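Audit log entry. Action: structure prediction of a protein-small molecule complex. Ligand: adenosine-5'-diphosphate. The ligand was supplied as SMILES and no pocket hint was given, so placement is left entirely to the predictor. Protonation state taken as written. Sequence taken verbatim from the request; no trimming, no tag removal. Recorded inputs:
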Amino acid sequence: MIEAIGLHKAFGPVVAVDNLSFEARDGRVTGLLGPNGSGKTTTLRLLCTILVPDRGQACVDGIDAAVDPRAVRARIGALPESRGLYPRLTARENVRYFGRLHGLRGEALESTIDRLGRRLEMQAILDRRVEGFSSGERVKVALARALVHAPRNVILDEPTTGLDVSGTRGVRTLIRRLRDEGHCLLFSSHIMQEVSALCDDIVVVSKGRAAAAGSPADLMQATGQSQLEDAFVAIIGSEEGLG
Amino acid sequence: MTLGGAWIVMRKEVVDNLRDRRTLAAALFYPLLGPVLLVLLLTVIGRSFSDRAESALELPLIGAEHAPNLVRFLTQQGAEILPAPPDPEAAVKAGDVDLVLVIPASFTEQFRAGEPASLQLISDESRQSATISIRRARQLLDAYSGQVSALRLLARGISPVVVQPLSIEDLSVATPQSQAAGFMNMTGYFLIYSIFIGGMYLAIDTTAGERERKSLEPLLLSPLPRRELVLGKLGATLVFTLVAVVETLLAFGIVLNRIPLEDYLGIRFGLSGAAILRVFLIVLPILPLASALQIIIASFTRSFKEAQNYLSMLPLVPALPGLFLAFLPVKPSLWAMLIPTFGQQLLINQVMRDEPIASAHLVVSAGTTLVAAVLLIGLAVRLYERETLVFGR
Ligand SMILES: Nc1ncnc2c1ncn2[C@@H]1O[C@H](COP(=O)(O)OP(=O)(O)O)[C@@H](O)[C@H]1O
Ligand SMILES: [Mg+2]
């Protein structure tokens, strides 16, 4: 369960997030949809405690990020905007490092890595050095790294950017399966089809504000559109920056 | 305060960087630079010195016919009389010969008349390599002068002792150890150079490199306290630095003990195991200072390259007083001990000279350096607690 309550963040004169509130619940996929520069990455960084809000509150499982940021970080698995790996380490070593940082160790950690390897269909590359991996393979390792501590809440920033069709399908399948297992899924995207295809709840972000929020049915009803994508365009006011 | 997280980070960074050729080369190859340079220098300088001291004095001479007795004396004393070059002053200036002795035609007349007979010794005192020849030539001429004056006094019935109010005996207190230490003033600097070079690439890789390859944001998402993150990276830098320092010290030990330097220098000296250990303990407090400084500077830069530019300048800073020391020995004093790296270089020089070290100096030097290190580590932790870290600057 992730809550944004009146979040506000400015970088000098640029207001990146402006009084943004929404809720991402367990067992559901919540999507942040907005054009480039609308403040999605900044919002996710506020929720992950990478950034501190100027005003407002970020809560994860009821824990205020400002009060106990480490507890919040322990409850989140995230694929942030920058998702670099250590090229001289193998995929397994990359994942193992983060498992250890989350307090896992020994047999339990190794079997978790193996399980994630099967789940993400990356057993074949698990013991190869990351140097030279394709972008799809890199995302798999980054996802395994994000999930190694079995977090209840999963935050993914534009998880399918740069992936080919099968890579994109793999990520979508993973998101649905995690949702079905009861996790709270929050991801950002500027691609309407992706949000339409995946989300139970949608927050449309425009210029740092929540322009609309609700289930696909809610959004279509509110805008009087029969197609979800037409509803997005109606809410944001243009198609610019959306895919 | 738990440090389990720091240990995890440190282990990962060490393993990761052991797989990097550039980092390994910096840690293992550069520290040998000092010892290798010392061998070359000692060999070259030592050989030229001993050559001059042991071989016959080559004495180009003009006007031998005007002073046959003097020339005979010089030859008896082992000087090798050579014909002078056509333009003696130009030849000395050019360094073709160390000196030229000119006996003018007036010499015979003045000598016979008992007047001071003038001679010219053409030399270039500024030429370091000629100083030994000049000194030997002067000593020979002084000896001849003394011999003649003694004979003249005796001829007049006066004891030569009357005109010898002083009897000077040369007693040099320069032990072979301290003579050699002249060259060895560089050792301290080279050790400090190793400290700044050994962990340099690791410090960059784990900070500027981490951001450049975009793995910093994921790392900051882990629940690890920033303090432990910094301490882990610092620890890994220290491991590489430590290896470099130990390597440098062992190499110096081998150079000074195993290579027969006395063949070149004519003086014998060694560096005992205890002395090496003392030098190691003296420089130890510099290690955390250097590592923290490197981590701070590299964290501010945007790229590996930029960090490399700054950090490779860093060893030059302690070099300045070190180079100064090689020419102008400064006496160890408390104020000098207050300056990290400078105090240590003075102390190392004392160990090299086999001089006793004031324990107050040792304490002040280690104390100020460690305090500076702790302050810098605190600053590094602060830096990693700032949210702008992830974006750089
Ligand atoms: N570190 C930063 N410094 C300055 N401006 C920033 C920074 N991060 C984001 N911004 C600005 O904030 C706005 C929102 O950016 P971002 O959250 O990355 O949007 P999105 O992820 O939706 O593309 C943009 O105008 C961007 O230029
Ligand atoms: Mg973004």
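Audit: result stored. The first strand of chain A starts at residue 2 and ends at 11. DSSP finds nine helices and ten strands in chain A.
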